[in-house]
Amino acid sequence: MIKNSLISVITQEEKEENSGSVEFQVFHFTSKIQRLTSHLELHKRDFLSQRGLRIILGKRQRLLTYLSKKKKVRYKKLMDQLYIREPKNR
């Protein structure tokens, strides 16, 4: 299995202080998404992991929507740091 190559954007002190912050949760979900994606490249028929990935993607999307409505500057900074695409508008 491939190790997580995502460099920590959030420092250790911030992790201890703000583990419930929206930015930390999005960072944590992003690292889980990358880990599951690399797993699914090796195991294409692992349907339970695919379901878990979709659930985590939905949670991260809801957090990003909340952050974009409440704190636009923090949202833009986080999107740039984690290299996440902007969602398509309907």
TrEMBL record:
One of its GO terms (cellular component) is chloroplast. One of its GO terms (biological process) is translation. InterPro entries: Ribosomal_uS15 (IPR000589), Ribosomal_uS15_bac-type (IPR005290), uS15_NS1_RNA-bd_sf (IPR009068). It is found in: Plastid, Chloroplast. It holds the Pfam family Ribosomal_S15. Belongs to the universal ribosomal protein uS15 family. This is Small ribosomal subunit protein uS15c. It comes from Satyrium nepalense var. ciliatum.
